[in-house]
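Good morning,

Both structures are done.
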Amino acid sequence: QVQLVESGGGLVQDGGSLRLSCAASGLTFRSYSMGWFRRVSGREREFVTAVRSIGGQTYYRDSVKGRFTISRDNAKNTVYLQMDNLRPEDTAIYYCGAHRGVILSDIRDPDQYDYWGQGTQVTVSS
């Protein structure tokens, strides 16, 4: 049984930092690209960042470039999201996902992901 378990969310002030973790089990972690998405109440889940299984290339949505950093540790089956200089508009539930596909454009599409975690709330106060 595949499980993705996020942790590290919480309440932080504008300009603060958080580090999210997503621990995976039940799958061959190194074979999956891993992504972080977020959902604000009433809105669709949106792509935040992803790291490919092969080569480790990373991708970011424009609004988080220079502030967020994704990384993965294949030995620990874990993907991380370091979030710095957080803004109130970053407030959302953050989900990690695992993507087995090879089409590059799919990495930003939540419908192409095979597994999801339960999400962790991030709240940035102004």
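Second structure follows.
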Amino acid sequence: QVHLVESGGGLVQSGGSLRVACAASGHTFATYDMGWFRQAPGNEREFVAAISWRGGSTNYADSVKGRFTISRDNAKNIGYLQMNSLQPEDTAVYYCATRYSSGTYVYTNNNDYNYWGQGTQVTVSS
């Protein structure tokens, strides 16, 4: 059974940094692409960043480019999202998700991902 468990969320002041992690089990993580999505109250879940199975390809939402960095450690079955220069509009529940890799293309749509974690809250105060 596949499990994805996010951690590292919390409260941070505007301009601060956080790193959230996604621990994977129950599947061969190294053969799965990984994505991070977020959902703020009243909003739909939106794409944040994604990384291919080997880490060679990444994709970012325009709103986080230059501030967020996605990475992964396949030996440890963990993925990360480093978030710098956080702003109040980044406040949301952050979810990691995985999908079996089909190559180097990195998917950005919710519906393309098969497995999801329970989410971790990130709150940025102004």
